[in-house]
Amino acid sequence: MSHSNPDRREFTKTLSAAIAAGMASGGFFSTAPSAKANATTNGKVGVALVGLGNLSTNQLAPALQKTKVMELRGIVTGTPAKADKWQQQYGIAKEHTYNYDNYDEIANDDAIDVIYVVLPNGMHPEYTIRAAKAGKHVLCEKPMANSSEECRQMIAACKDANRKLAIGYRCQFDPFHRRCIELAREQTFGKLKFIEAGFGFKIGDPNQWRLKSALAGGGALMDVGIYALQACRYLTGEEPLEITAQETKTDPVKFAEVDETITWSMKFPSGVSTSCMTTYGFNGINQFTGLCDNGWFGLDPAFSYAPPQPKSSNPSQAKLDLDPVDQFAAEMDAFARCVLHDEPSSVPGEEGLRDLVAIEAIYESIRTGKAVSLA
Amino acid sequence: MSHSNPDRREFTKTLSAAIAAGMASGGFFSTAPSAKANATTNGKVGVALVGLGNLSTNQLAPALQKTKVMELRGIVTGTPAKADKWQQQYGIAKEHTYNYDNYDEIANDDAIDVIYVVLPNGMHPEYTIRAAKAGKHVLCEKPMANSSEECRQMIAACKDANRKLAIGYRCQFDPFHRRCIELAREQTFGKLKFIEAGFGFKIGDPNQWRLKSALAGGGALMDVGIYALQACRYLTGEEPLEITAQETKTDPVKFAEVDETITWSMKFPSGVSTSCMTTYGFNGINQFTGLCDNGWFGLDPAFSYAPPQPKSSNPSQAKLDLDPVDQFAAEMDAFARCVLHDEPSSVPGEEGLRDLVAIEAIYESIRTGKAVSLA
């Protein structure tokens, strides 16, 4: 694509966005900052991935070959060899290729509407805030940050810049998870009473960033336990009132800086109680079950990159025999549509913040040996 | 069977017991009190069931038609109609039929070697202690009592009377559960790291004794949560070091006196951690899973009267394709053999006490909102 005529490009992009949005939101010719997309002439939203690790390489880039509204246009990487490879593999122009020294210059790159922050957790705040200051909308991987305080700073920065902020909660865009939310909310099996949810795996390389507190913020809980927490929150549609947690560490060398195995319980306002777990110590738990007055439903596995597998006391009633989708493509297209149509994200920064508030309560309960009230 | 010649009967019973025991334990002609059976001439151990409720009617009496070493000879019931029915159905002689007024006269009934206490939990201590004082060995249903203090009194009473005391932990005599214990202890899937265990059901009749604190001692935890607790204890072969628990009550009328839903976590000395739950509020959880370094195994359902169903990450390695047995028959025959051979029970009063110690810690954690140390 050509970017030789910035003025014209700016105009047509704005036009395109307005058309896509049905010109519903007004302010079309306004000079005030708008949350609308810098969508380019092809009607798509351009994204730059920041951090070309495993997730970007094996999940996001392939997913971006399937997205309908979001388009991979830029990369930010500190590794020149990766830059070369991605430029060739995905036809990314040199002018949309950045490193960590010139990252802020992305402000001048109108092809990039959205920055997807795929860095280690501890770097999310800085790169989100700088993205917002560069005038870009931000999609940030989970967990949003290492602390609720950082989440609040990120939300404020994006608000100040009038940019959208969403968190990479791919499961919330998956049809199996959506259907389970319906089953819970519509009380297909009667009132939801209990959720059992857990996600863990046996972590390998002892030198990876996920085991470093500064970069990861925490261990299994921050990385994968958050999926179980999310499941409890989106199935109930509520925030926990009380959290009780316990941690076990069997390898204090490998897990010197982060948590290994955590179990936690939560009470929700509607009376739902939950039993959750997460671990870096072993494989085998990757599921949630919603137990209701007259039956149960769930996914097992639930949180893998592979399609979820449904389970139910009554499969024909659960209607969970659905066609799988690429969750990352669905997540990214959803955010692209929010940007194009100037609509709020269903997984905004506030959603990431709510998880961090609960996660901090889990750590507090472990630290103090006491139930933590969030009421 | 005839009981016209007490002296001869006593002698042949003792002889029979000694033969069965391989005359290994000495004291054959000793006049000191012996823990040996009053086994009758047919070489079997006679049992009287105290309390002819659902469990006795639908599980124990049918199981006693299959037992090889224990024989149903007596009943204790406050309902004459039940007495008539059982006498006819099981050929129980009038002389071995008791009510709650003449219960202690069972001391003179040499056909009865064992009393199986199948009353509401709160009545276990009294009827166990009176059984021991009547010179009978005691098999007592779980939970052993409403408190650890009562357990200690029951143990002391049986010890003072030189009578054996065992708790009705039928799962410990089930081949599926035994095999799972082997898988854990022999580290077939590597070191055991985590146990997920839960058992609950939606309780019906709001007027039943299980919802009365004085009779039941507690709710779901005392009644069925104890199975999940047991599973954690027999899979690890250890006692919990720390317990953290949370309770949720959605129906404070029905569950005014007892617990409805409880989640709890335990840490064991070997580093195993557990996530457990129990409920009277809904159906659907009746399982345990043992997660190890290199795989997992479990039973789901695990604790029903119907045969357990195995599950594993590697079924051919787990070797859980076993033939089901009648768990109650196995449990009763095992105790009968202990009595006959004067051997210790694998599920003695002390085993029941250990569960009550853990259960009290669970209730304490709920009451105080704090982790409870048992170290």
Question: Your description of this structure?
Answer:
Two copies of one chain form a homodimer. The first copy, chain A, has two domains: 6-170 and 332-344, NAD(P)-binding Rossmann-like Domain (Rossmann fold); 175-324 and 354-373, Dihydrodipicolinate Reductase, domain 2 (2-Layer Sandwich). In chain A, strand 1 (45-50), helix 2 (54-63) and strand 2 (70-76) form a beta-alpha-beta unit. The first copy, chain A, contains eleven helices and 14 strands. The radius of gyration of chain A is 21 Å and the shape is globular. In chain A, 54% of the residues are buried. Chain A has 375 residues and is α/β, with parallel strands linked by helices. In chain A, strands 13-12-11-7-10-9-8-14 form an eight-stranded mixed β-sheet. In chain A, strands 3-2-1-4-5-6 form a six-stranded parallel β-sheet, with helices on both faces. The A-B interface holds A 193-194, 196, 198, 202, 242, 244-246, 248, 250, 261, 263, 265, 267, 271-277, 279, 281-285, 289, 291-293, 295-296, 313, 369-371 and B 193-194, 196, 198, 202, 242, 244-246, 248, 250, 261, 263, 265, 267, 271-277, 279, 281-285, 289, 291-293, 295-296, 313, 369-371.
Which regions of chain A have little confidence, pLDDT < 50, spanning 5+ residues? 1-37
Oligomer: homodimer
Number of contiguous helices of chain A: 11
CATH superfamily of the largest domain in chain A: NAD(P)-binding Rossmann-like Domain
The tally of structural domains of chain A comes to 2
- Please report the distance between the alpha carbons of the first and last residues of chain A: 53 Å
The proportion of residues forming helix of chain A, as a percent range, comes to 25-40%
| Backbone shape of chain A | globular
Examine the secondary-structure arrangement and name the CATH architecture of the largest domain in chain A.
3-Layer(aba) Sandwich
Sketch the major β-sheet of chain A: 8 strands, mixed
Number of DSSP strands of chain A? Answer: 14
EC number (chains A, B): 1.1.99.28
Keywords (chains A, B): Oxidoreductase
Domain Gfo/Idh/MocA-like oxidoreductase N-terminal (chains A, B): 46-169
Domain Gfo/Idh/MocA-like oxidoreductase C-terminal (chains A, B): 325-374
